């Protein structure tokens, strides 16, 4: 036995507690956690397990499990062209929206971070889409996209460009939805990135100025590395949001034309609440869950190395 | 090596009031120049104007005889140490030290050589691969110093560099910074609110208050011949004791506790102004018959080599510093003597010195030669 333990054992003052006293800490912590545990169980954990459960069944019209089919629902989906189309649309949609949202909000945040007169006004404007509901924004864009009286086509007309069938053409519909989504999500990303920018100590830029570093040198060597945790967070959040887009699809195109905008969440909705196929809808939901999980894990694996946490 | 000349330099932010007003000074090459004052006195603003981080509202700044008001920071050949060191958290110590050299496109070999040299000088060789967050406060401070060393700029600006360190480390870094400055022969402009740093490090000190220069001089000039009440109180620890006083029957009286006989020349200088009496703690002694103070001891601090006594004079707490160890009890009555030759008398309104040991001496010499 070493010297330390010898001394400790000789002079230790033993604590006398019964089981009730020993668990005092545990009981208190469970009490503090209980509101969260209850809420999460009711609104997150139960629906999640129920979804997984239902994905192995055929259901009746009310959504009760009727016949156990094992992995049939999944096999059916992987075989269906409609599902493949939906997956393709979902990935394309993410590709259109995520990089644009991150880049545009980063750019706007850089602008709004400058100390200029009246910058508060622009900060408010750039953030304002955050305060607007999905339904309201979609309706606004529905008017903008209108083929004959819409503002967009009118403007194009002034430039001598032929009107674009924004929501009516299967080639344009996904792009139109993407534009709407970018517009809607910029507010939130902008706000978070601006917060990240303002967290960077001004001293660092002053020190760099004394060394003679120019704007872009500072941007790439100081701002971006120090902002990387924020950008990484925004990237993941935006990806997840883009996979979960629903409202704008429902209002603008209802998944059409020719399923061109049938994003996965909209397909789930159609399966469950229009076709009453709760089994395949649940299977789609489970697939979506694993897609998001996998993608997030991949991002952590490959991008987190480049993130500098302070 | 270049001289720094400031002529009527002023700064205003709101166009209503001055943050810095009419600063005139010339700083010699190789000088350790300290800007000292309480927080908000404009010392950091002045430093930032020198660095080119703030616009100069009026007045001229010249470096080596050339007007530098509108020179960008990197053209001024300066280096700067910030209060929080401004280390890049995502870069290693080595990359931090090299950052400025990379920007200036100095060759890789030269960079390596300078970093090695600076790291050895500051004892950082073992930490070059670490990130700033893995270093202690003192080590971060050294990294910031290393950046100045490698830049080889002839002028170094420091903005309260020691304020984040503990007392012991601060004492050690004071010596190191001073040595570094002398070794490299650079001109140092050093901002601090700590009068101990100002006294111990500076070749010359500029005392600032509310953006205005109060006094410029060597540490001893400022300590021995403060030009006004503010400087007298600000420099010295414990600070100079002050009390409102009046003249009664040719004696200087403060409250019920203090009464000193004044010379005719002092009385003549005072006239009928209202005045404040000032005396440094080391000039209050055991009772010896002259310059009597009768009061009650409030507190006794025995510091080993000296003893600080606190007592009340005209409703202000005074301190006396006696050499040696004195076993006295707080609460007991005590009689003290004030060294009459060492008293300062300030005008109550303008706060300027009316009479001080310095200008008294000349008068006394005059009397003796007669």
Describe this entry's structure for a reader.
- The complex is a heterodimer of chains A (about 300) and B (about 375).
- Chain A has one domain (about 80-305): Orthogonal Bundle (MetI-like fold), CATH 1.10.3720.10.
- Helix content of chain A is about 70%, strand content about 0%.
- Chain A has 14 helices and 2 strands.
- Chain A has helices spanning about 5-10, 20, 25-55, 70-80, 80-110, 120-125, 135-145, 150-160, 170-200, 200-210, 215-245, 245-250, 265-275, 280-305, and strands at about 55-60, 65-70.
- In chain A, strands 1-2 form a two-stranded antiparallel sheet.
- In chain B, the strands form 3 sheets. In chain B, strands 11, 12, 13, 14, 15, 16, 17, 18, 19, 20 and 21 form an 11-stranded antiparallel beta sheet that branches.
- The longest helix of chain B has 18 residues, at about 165-185.
- Chain B is built from 10 helices and 21 strands.
- The termini of chain B are far apart.
- With about 375 residues, chain B is α+β, with helices and mostly antiparallel strands.
- The chains are: A mainly alpha (about 300), B alpha+beta (about 375).
- The interface of A and B includes residues 203 and 211 of A.
Largest sheet composition of chain A = 2 strands, antiparallel
Rg of chain A, alpha carbons: 26 Å
Radius of gyration of chain B: 25 Å
Question: What is the second-level CATH architecture of chain A?
Answer: Orthogonal Bundle
Strand content of chain B: 25-35%
Give the overall average pLDDT of chain B.
88
Largest interface: A-B, 18 and 24 residues
Give the termini distance of chain A in whole angstroms: 42 Å
